[in-house]
Amino acid sequence: MALKVTAASEGDRSQVAALAQEVQQVTGNSVELAYVDQGYTGQNAALAAQEHGIRLSVVKHPMAKRGFVLLPKRWVVERSFAWAARFRRLARDYERLDTSLKAFHYIAFACIMIARTTKELG
């Protein structure tokens, strides 16, 4: 898992290169495709990811959107963030340091993965 914590004032597209580099470092350059939301559209984000060997596939909303629409692939990320939000420290942004927030996310996702693994095995 790779995680990049930034201030809310920083844009998503400007973080693509740093996150792509961290993803490839953690996975041993095995990631080829990343599904992203519409916040990552544009040539700069695509080029920044391509420099690290990752192709971005933007999951777009359908034109006639009425009510809840399940978007392919994107629900996996949204579901994961919903699971993490169950952890009290991650429900709100209480942390002053980005390293603390990052650590709590790692702990939360480790707990989630352990719980899901033990549920599947037992």
Characteristics:
two-stranded parallel ribbon; Transposase; 122 residues; 5 helices; 7% strand; Tnp_DDE_dom
| Backbone shape | globular
Name the helix and strand elements from N-terminus to C-terminus, one letter apiece: HEHEHHH
Query: What percent of residues are in strands?
Result: 5-15%
| Largest β sheet strand count, sense and barrel closure | 2 strands, parallel
The residue-averaged pLDDT reads 82
Distance between the termini: 25 Å
* Major sheet: arrangement of strands: 1-2
Main structural class = mainly alpha
Total DSSP E strands:
2
Per DSSP, the total helix count is 5
Instruction: Tell me the radius of gyration.
Output: 16 Å
**Integer count of domains:** 2
Extract low-pLDDT stretches.
none
Q: What percentage of residues falls in helices of 4 or more residues? A: 40-55%
Description:
- With 122 residues, the chain is mainly alpha-helical.
- The protein has 2 domains: 1-60, no CATH class; 61-122.
- The chain is 49% helix and 7% strand.
- It is built from 5 helices and 2 strands, in the order H-E-H-E-H-H-H.
- The protein has helices spanning 16-27, 43-50, 74-85, 88-91, 98-121; strands spanning 33-36, 55-58.
- A two-stranded parallel sheet has the order 1-2.
Blueprint (SSEs and pairs):
Elements: H1 16-27, E1 33-36, H2 43-50, E2 55-58, H3 74-85, H4 88-91, H5 98-121
Protein name: Transposase
InterPro entries: Tnp_DDE_dom
Pfam families: DDE_Tnp_1_2
